[in-house]
Specification:
The complex is a heterodimer of chains A (262) and B (790). By secondary structure, chain A is α+β, with helices and mostly antiparallel strands. Chain A is built from ten helices and twelve strands. The relative contact order of chain B is 0.12. The chains are: A alpha+beta (262), B alpha+beta (790). Chains A and B meet through helix 10 of A and helix 3 and helix 19 of B. Bound molecules: flavin-adenine dinucleotide. The site of flavin-adenine dinucleotide has 29 residues of chain A, from strand 2 and helix 6.
């Protein structure tokens, strides 16, 4: 780790100001950033910790939509959404291990947009809105490829507004070592249609599977996607799975998510 | 009848009090006054010529005390292989020098070519980044067969990538070929025994110290065998006289083989300590551990089994390529040869075995013994090909094994691979396995799995292995450069409690509990009054350390011999005290008594007399009560077992789940059944890990792709089933005083083929014509095999 300064603002405004310094970087739970620093793969001059900002903590429920503070930990989401959005709670409860869940934050995960991460799938499938210190960004516009988002330098994810579907389920087929998603599929059924988001599979990061959405919007059953095929083009090839395997898993996991949706 | 804490009692491990309450004292916990840090500059390329290393800028950085490069060690020795293996044609193996720091060339990613000594680790890292290094990269030698065919050499000076081409038993080569040619049926299988990264929980750590007042060096290090490390540093590498070097291995958090060996970092911290007059510490981080700890296994094998029309085994023939990596680690030459080829007759009366093994240098981390060391490789090849043969000729795999088993009345049995098994009863183990695993209920369980859309398979395995390495005369003939006895000193203190100094090192095995149980049993005293001292060459007799499941069979036997000497001397003292002839004095349950009388003295009274020798026959008996014994085993010990497991495979994803696992082992006499069960559990976890998840992959450029836990999977609790572990069917080891065989590696030896056999059975039950899948059987691999078979 290289030396750095740390600030712990208690308001979004102070955090935004602190992030104006050259080479300053936001720190959420540190579950991605700290290992990166330890490996000396990044050298920020200053870390601005967001977890002390009260406005960015916790979950509010305004009817059909949850508003989740950007610094809310996975563990809190896992417990506090168990009744309101069980598929989200279940997803959060299977991220990493207890240490990761008690430190890692939803804002950090969405800002990082790891191609194998879980939160991007629920955000995209739910049609969430990413709320920052300057604007609101629809999930469909927010995720722009592996580790790439619509965020500008110094922009902070302050909250996520997450519509709650009628039925939903997340199927995570874990990569054996990291236990991130080798392929993860989040299926969300709303009154006006179904959204299917796939993580872990593509070189372009989280994405929607629109053919499946169309088929499932017409007929919400596992059989509805039986005739579809997933192209292996541009899917991830690594030690743990070929593009063909991932393509196959996308379909299998989608079917299972539909069958398990509640 | 076991005492509460004597032989056979399930005494709770006393060392766990400190381990489980955070009071263990590992090397990195030791903070010396004025200590400084060593940080290594490691190659990022697999094969390269070091053109220049400019240290000027780095040397001027804050906190930097010294910088070493390979140049500083050209005049000292190299780290040797402990065993000389000759090729089939009699040529000695190729033995390129393994220097303290790479010089001239770097040969694997992680190869250290420089070291910075600085006040702090972070300052050392900064300085390593400031080194101006010019390394010209060359194509990497990775694939073993390409390595042998090509002219790109890991070590230019030897002009080949072949270390040796070994044949065992060479005299049987022609006869084996003949037997296979004429056989009724021959089953052939090509398989890979996957390379493993040891991943001890505690990474390596070495602390060097030099006292300019006395000229004494001290090395605290993560070692399984401090005397061996001292011998290597003294006699081969740095030439420090043994009497001037103390090696201390304090609490060590797991080794699994990787901490047997001497590594360059140990020599470096000693040399740096002398130069600077400071204590120099190096602690490996996990990334360094992945790149530099000696890896395990990595065999590519073709095995053939010849059978007659009745299913009798006629011959096993193997052709194996064994990766030794970029340099010869200390046991790297014996592990794939004498610890592997000699087991290639397995549990069977097969008359002919021929093993051809080529050891190959590649631009990868050195490969050496890892839990099981050669025997897992042997068992895996044998038990996979037998399973395949049974399927091919339409025989039940258990029945075919039984037909070829050595029978209980055939011991001692001279195996076709050159060992003499002293005892065993493989049918009894198989009977017990069938019973305790509820094999009879398998069909119902399979039906239930199928109703859930899952394929269920049953896999079986029989193994015999060789532990307790080893008779020094025998290994000397076979090329060992060391003896393989062990030693113990039993010191009875004046007040009747004991300190027992042992050559074996405990790094999770439980010696601190078990050795006192043995002594307590023999002396009839409380085990709590006996303590074990280990891991410090200034305190313990010269022992060879802990590996190859030898601690109990070899060092435990030395403890017995030393305790017998104590009893013999104490009996003489007691006879004097009792005014009797020594021959008339009995020793029972801690009391010396004169036969046929009620006159007696306690062990404690005799101890006190030995140290306060008033009214003592000083001209006949020396004062004091302390005895040392060196024990050199007469043979290996031969644990054996019958294992089975049941797996469920998800045909849609290829995911394998081990649902049931049964291990029935013959360990001879068991000293502490709880500890033995724990050893089996650990071994099973590692074996299942090898079978299902542990994958070490170098790319063509020699970059380790699975270089962190993000890509190298370790088995986790939810990968593992509840185990049925049974050691009720024991036959006693006939040649050591404890009758004990060795249990440390069995689980890792017996489980991989069991799991693979079960997965293949599941595939077949699903109508897939799949005869083999290489380990690790990851979901991707299993799915791919199923997909290709469609
Ligand atoms: C062992 C392990 C297992 C894991 N398993 C999983 C898994 O199964 N599934 C999964 O989805 N994830 C997994 N993770 C990742 C984990 O969820 C991380 O917590 C998450 O990716 C990053 O969140 P964080 O709060 O820790 O962010 P940090 O590490 O603090 O930051 C990550 C990045 O986001 C930026 N950032 C942080 N917060 C904000 C914000 N509010 N606004 C703007 N930018 C911000 C930082 O500057 C940095 O660039 C795992 C991590 C570990 C260590």
């Amino acid at each position: 780790m290289y030396a750095f300064d740390i600030e712990r603002p208690t308001s979004v405004a102070d955090a935004v100001a602190a992030l104006k310094d050259e080479d300053a970087q936001a720190l959420g739970g540190g579950q991605t950033l700290i290992p990166t620093l330890k490996q000396r793969l990044a050298a920020p001059s200053k870390l601005v910790s967001l977890t002390g900002i009260a406005d960015m903590q916790g979950i509010a429920n305004d009817g059909d939509t949850l508003r989740i503070g950007g610094a809310t930990t996975h563990a809190t989401v896992a417990v506090d959404t168990a009744d309101t959005y069980p598929a989200l709670a279940d997803l959060a409860s299977h991220i990493g291990d207890p240490a990761v869940r008690n430190r890692g934050t939803i804002g950090g995960s969405l800002a990082n947009n790891d191609p194998s991460a879980c939160y991007p799938a629920v955000a995209l499938a739910s049609g969430a809105t990413i709320i920052t210190n300057t604007r609101e960004i629809a999930a469909d516009d927010y995720f722009q490829g592996m580790f790439t988002t619509a965020l500008e330098d110094g922009e902070i994810v302050t909250a996520i507004s997450m519509p709650v579907p009628e039925k939903a389920n997340y199927q995570k087929f874990v990569q054996p070592a990291s236990r991130f998603a080798l392929v993860g599929v989040f299926v969300a059924k709303f009154a006006d249609g179904v959204r299917v988001a796939v993580t872990g599979a593509s070189n372009e990061g989280v994405h929607r599977w629109t053919e499946a959405e169309d088929a499932l919007s017409a007929d919400f059953s596992a059989g509805a996607i039986a005739g579809l095929t997933v192209s292996a083009d541009n899917l991830i090839a690594d030690l743990h799975g070929s593009p063909e395997y991932r393509a196959h898993l996308v379909k299998v996991m989608t079917g299972r998510a539909v069958a398990a949706a509640s | 009848m076991p005492k509460d804490d004597g032989i056979g009692a399930a005494t709770v491990r006393r060392e766990d009090v400190r381990f489980l309450t955070g009071r263990g004292r590992y090397s990195d916990d030791i903070k010396a006054f004025g200590e400084c840090a060593a940080v290594f500059a490691r190659s990022t390329v697999a094969n390269g010529t070091i053109k220049s290393i400019n240290t000027e800028a780095a040397a001027a950085m804050p906190g930097v005390l010294a910088i070493f490069t390979g140049e500083d060690f050209v005049d000292v020795g190299g780290n040797p292989a402990g065993w000389l293996v000759n090729s089939r044609d009699g040529e000695p193996m190729k033995e390129p020098k393994r220097p303290v720091l790479a010089h001239g060339k770097v040969r694997h990613v992680g190869d250290a070519y420089a070291a910075v000594i600085a006040e702090t680790v972070e300052q050392g890292r900064d300085a390593v980044e400031a080194l101006e290094v010019d390394i010209e990269e060359h194509a990497a030698v990775i694939n073993m067969k390409d390595a042998l065919a090509g002219t790109n050499y890991v070590h230019d000076e030897i002009g080949t990538n072949q270390c040796f081409d070994w044949g065992w038993i060479e005299d049987n080569r022609a006869a084996t070929d003949e037997a296979i040619k004429g056989a009724h049926h021959v089953t052939t299988l090509e398989l890979v025994n996957n390379r493993l990264v040891p991943n001890a929980m505690e990474p390596r750590c070495s602390i060097g110290d030099y006292n300019h007042g006395t000229g004494d060096y001290t090395l605290q290090t993560t070692s399984q065998n401090p005397h061996l490390t001292r011998l290597l540093i003294s006699a081969f590498v740095l030439g420090i006289p043994e009497n001037k070097l103390t090696v201390i291995a304090p609490d060590v958090g797991g080794g699994f083989g990787s901490k047997i060996y001497h590594y360059g970092e140990e020599a470096l911290v000693l040399a740096a300590a002398k130069k600077l007059g400071r204590t120099v510490k190096w602690t490996s981080d996990r990334s360094e551990a992945f790149l530099t700890d000696a890896h395990g296994r990595d065999h590519v094998t073709k095995i053939e089994l010849a059978l007659d029309e009745k299913g009798n085994f006629l011959a096993f023939r193997t052709e194996t390529y064994a990766n030794v990596g970029a340099y010869l680690s200390n046991f790297s030459t014996v592990t794939p040869t004498f610890l592997h080829g000699t087991l290639m007759a397995g549990n069977y009366t097969v008359p002919l075995v021929y093993v051809n093994l080529k050891a190959v240098f590649t631009n990868t981390a050195p490969v050496d013994a890892y839990r099981g060391a050669g025997r897992p490789e042997a068992t895996f090849s044998l038990e996979r090909v037998i399973d395949m043969a049974a399927r091919e000729i339409g025989r039940d795999p258990i029945e075919l094994r039984r037909q070829n088993f050595i029978k209980p009345d055939q011991y001692p049995f001279a195996s076709a691979a050159g060992l003499e098994y002293d005892s065993g009863n493989y049918d009894a183990l198989m009977d017990q396995m069938e019973k305790v695993s509820d094999k009879a209920g398998f069909a119902a369980r399979r039906a239930e799995s199928e109703s859930k859309g899952l394929l269920r398979g049953f896999g079986v395995n029989a193994y015999v292995e060789a532990c307790g390495i080893a008779p020094s005369n025998l290994v000397g003939i076979l090329g060992s450069r060391v003896g393989l006895y062990d030693a113990a000193t039993v010191r009875v203190n004046a007040t009747g409690n004991l300190s027992v100094m042992v050559g074996a090192h405990s790094h999770g095995q439980g010696h601190e509990t078990v050795f006192p149980q043995i002594v307590a049993d023999m002396l009839g005293i409380d085990a709590a009054s006996i303590d074990i001292v280990h891991g410090d060459t200034s305190k313990i007799p010269f022992g060879m350390g802990t590996y190859g499941s030898r601690s109990l069979a070899v060092c435990g036997s030395a403890v017995v011999r030393a305790t017998e000497k104590v009893i013999a001397k104490a009996t003489k003292i007691a006879a004097h005290m009792l005014e009797a002839e020594a021959g008339d004095v009995d020793f029972n349950d801690g009391t010396f008594s004169v036969k046929g009388t009620n006159r007696s003295v306690s062990f404690g009274e005799v101890a006190l007399k030995a140290y306060i020798p008033h009214d003592y026959p000083i001209d006949l008996i020396e004062p004091g009560l302390e005895e040392t014994a060196f024990y050199d085993p007469a043979n290996f010990t031969y644990p054996s077992g019958a294992y089975c497991c049941e797996v469920e495979v998800d045909p849609e994803t290829g995911k394998v789940r081990v649902d049931r696992m049964t291990a029935v082992d013959d360990f001879g006499n068991v000293m502490n059944p709880m500890i033995v069960t724990g050893q089996v559990h650990g071994g099973l976890g590692q074996g299942i890990g090898q079978a299902l998840v542990e994958q070490t992959t170098y790319d063509d450029d020699g970059q380790l792709l699975s270089a962190s836990y993000m890509d190298y999977a370790m088995p986790r609790a939810d990968d593992l089933p509840f185990y049925v572990v049974d050691h009720s069917q024991s036959t006693v080891c006939t040649h050591n005083p404890l009758g004990a065989k060795g249990c440390g590696e069995a689980g890792a030896i017996g489980s991989p083929p069991t799991v693979v056999n079960a997965v293949i059975d599941a595939m077949q039950s699903g109508g897939k014509n799949i005869t083999h899948i290489d380990m690790p059987m990851t979901p991707h691999r299993v799915w791919t095999a199923m997909n290709n078979a469609q």
